Amino acid sequence: MDAPAAPVDGLYREHRPWLFGWLRRKLGCEHRAEDLAQDVFVRVIQGRKQVRANEARALLTTIAKGLVVDHQRHAALEHAYLAYLAAIPESYAPSPEAQAEQLQALVQLDRLLDGLPPKARSAFLLSQLDGLTYPEIAERLGVSLSSVQQYMVRAMSACYAAFHV
């Protein structure tokens, strides 16, 4: 017989302390752990899934791990952007508002790229960052030229949709 589904408020009361402690150990920051613990339960609510009581910790852990990875990627991206800003002359630095907008666009682009299949992501990055031609990308990835063209259409369409729709 299947275990009954647990209401979200019961999941929260029963598992939040454990989840908070797990996140605090992973992140080393009580405030960030608190935020991510709340985000985990928001995801559960948004998912509108029936959570079986005997599967609750596994589900909460899976969601939390994804949020921790997102947080770490965001922090690394922000760190790299701040290092870039520190390396350019102050007169060329964008305003604080522009910096915030640029960082948000970088995070959005990072999420978009993470959602692409690996070869499409690689083709896009080789083209846009390394300046390789499509034939060079095809050779590097060991795929046909038409595959590279398809990858680029997919990546560019995703970029357009993310930034212009």
Automatic annotation (TrEMBL):
Residues in RNA polymerase sigma-70 region domain copies: 11-75
Gene3D superfamilies noted in UniProt: 1.10.1740.10, Winged helix-like DNA-binding domain superfamily/Winged helix DNA-binding domain
Keyword vocabulary terms for this entry: Sigma factor, Transcription, Transcription regulation
A single BP term in Gene Ontology: DNA-templated transcription initiation
Protein's UniProt keywords contain Transcription regulation: yes
Gene Ontology MF, one: DNA binding
Keyword Cell membrane recorded: no
Domain of life: Bacteria
Annotated RNA polymerase sigma factor 70 region 4 type domain residues: 107-159
PANTHER family noted in UniProt: RNA POLYMERASE ECF-TYPE SIGMA FACTO, RNA POLYMERASE SIGMA FACTOR FECI-RELATED
Alphabetical list of NCBIfam families matching this protein: PRK12528.1 (NF009180), sigma70-ECF (TIGR02937)
Family, similarity comment: Belongs to the sigma-70 factor family. ECF subfamily.
Protein name, per record: RNA polymerase sigma factor
Organism lineage: Bacteria, Pseudomonadati, Pseudomonadota, Betaproteobacteria, Burkholderiales
